[in-house]
Amino acid sequence: MSTKIKTINPYTGKEIKSYNQFSKSTIETYLKRSETVFNTWSEEAISHRTKLLKNLSKNLIKHKQHYAALMTEEMGKPISQSLAEIDKCVFLSDFYAKNADQFLADELIETDAKESFISYDPLGCILAVMPWNYPFWQVLRFAIPTLTAGNTALLKHASNVTGCALAIQDLFLDSGFPEGCFQSLIINHEQVENLIADPRIKAVSLTGSEKAGKHISKISGNNLKKAVLELGGNNACIVLKDADLDKHIATMVNARMQNTGQSCIAAKRFIVEESVYDEFLEKFKAKVVSLQVGNPVKEFTEVSVLAREDLVEILQKQVNDSVKKGANILIGNKTEKAFFAPTILTDVKPGMPVFDEETFGPVAAIIKVKDAEEAYKTATNSRFGLGTMVFTRDKSKAKKQILKIQDGAFFINELVKSDPRLPFGGTKASGYGRELSKEGIHEFVNKKTVYINS
Ligand code: NAP
Prior knowledge:
It contains 15 helices and 22 strands. The chain is of the alpha/beta class and about 450 residues long. The protein folds into two domains: about 5-230 and about 430-450, Aldehyde Dehydrogenase, Chain A, domain 1, CATH 3.40.605.10; about 235-420, Aldehyde Dehydrogenase, Chain A, domain 2. The strands form six sheets. It has a seven-stranded mixed β-sheet with strand order 12-15-16-11-10-18-19, with helices on both faces. A six-stranded mixed β-sheet has the order 7-6-5-8-9-21, with helices on both faces. α2 runs antiparallel to α4 and α3 (about 65-75) runs antiparallel to α6 (about 160-175). The chain starts with a strand and ends with a strand. The chain binds NADP nicotinamide-adenine-dinucleotide phosphate (NAP). NADP nicotinamide-adenine-dinucleotide phosphate binds near residues 132 and 158.
C-alpha cells in the first residue's frame, strides 16, 4: 500500500487533499523522461526558450486568482500577499525572457589563441528541494533561470504545498515547455537522498532550514555534486538615532510581519540606539497593533495563521525560553491552533533563542544598544548571514559599514528583499550560492573554456 501525503488548510484545520507518494518505478519513469527531454531541450535556441517564458508570464496572469487561492488554502498566506507573489513571478519571468540571451551568450576573452571564449552549457537534470513559505516564488526563481539555461528540473516541494507543486508542473506544460522539462515529484526525504546519489541528477538546489541544508550538502558532497543552499536567517534591522521613523516605521513592521513572519530574510532582531528607543518602541507597537489579523482569504488581512500547527509549538518554545532568560513580552504571545499573535519582545540579549536562532513567525525581538558602533557589532553577532538593514539619515556613514557586514545583502533605509535583477543568497549558516540576476542563471551551467588556435 502506498504512503499518503495529506495537505491541510492551516486556518480551518481541514484536510484539503491526499496524494499517493511516488513508488520507485514512478520516480524512475520521471528520471528517464527528464534525461530524454534534456537531449533535445538543451539544443533548443535560447530564443525559443525565452519565447516560452513569455507564455509562462501570460499564464501566470491568466490564472493569478487560482494560484493565489491555492497558496492561501495550503499554507495560510493572506490572499493579497499571495496575489502579490504571482505578480512578482511575472516580473521574474519577464526579466529572464528579456535578459537570458545576453547572460548566456559566449563570453569572448582575448588570449594567445585565435579565438577563446567561455561557453555557458547546461548540466542536465537538476533536483530542487523547496520550502512552503513562498510556494510559487521559491520554485520559479530556481526553475526559470535553470530551465532557460537548457537544463531540465525535478522538484521535491514541501509536502504541505503539494497542490502548488502540481499546479507549477502544469503551468510549465501549458506554457509550451516539453513534457518532462519540469516535473514535480511527490516523495519523502529518503527518496530525495536516493535521487541525489543517482548519476542522472547533476546538481541540487535546496531552499530550506539549516538542518535540511546540512543533510543535503553532506549527501551531495559525498556524491561530488554541486549544491546551492538558500537557508535560514536572523537578519538584523538596525535603527540609528537619526532614523526617519515616521517615514520608515511601516517598512520596519512589514520587514518582520509580512508572510506572517515566515520569511528567511525577515527582520528578526531590531537593534535600536537607546536615545531613540522609546520613540521607536511606541511607533513600532502602534503599527503592529493596527495590523489586520484574521482569515487569510479576506482581502484586507495582513497577518494570519502559520503554515502548520506544529510550527506554533516551535515558536512558542523559543519565546518562552527567551522569557525565562529575561526577555519581556510587550504584546502578543497568544496562540490558538495554527495562530500565533503578533508579538513584541523587549530586553532581548545574545544567548536567548530569539536572538541566536531563526524565529519563523510574527515575533519581533527588540535589543537596546548604546550607540551605532554597538549596533553594528550586535548585528554581526550571528551564525547566519542573509542580510542586514539599517535605517539612518546619514547614508554615507552607513555605506562605510559595507565591508564589515558579512552577509549576502546590506540594505540602507529599505527592508532586505529579493529582486530578479539583483543576486540573492547568504553566507555562514544561511548557505552558499546565488539565485536571481546573471549570477543565478550561471549557477547550473558548465562554464566551458573553448580555445581555438590557428
Ligand atoms: P525545511 O523543513 O528544511 O523543508 C524545506 C524542504 O526540504 C521541504 O521540501 C522538505 O520536505 C525538505 N526536507 C527537509 N529535510 C529534508 C531531508 N532531511 N532530506 C530531504 N528533504 C528534506 O524548511 P521549511 O520549514 O519548509 O522552510 C522554512 C525554512 O526555509 C526556514 O529556515 C527559512 O529561513 C528557509 N528559507 C530560506 C530561504 C532563502 O532564500 N535563504 C527562502 C525561504 C525559506 P518536507 O516538506 O517533506 O519535509
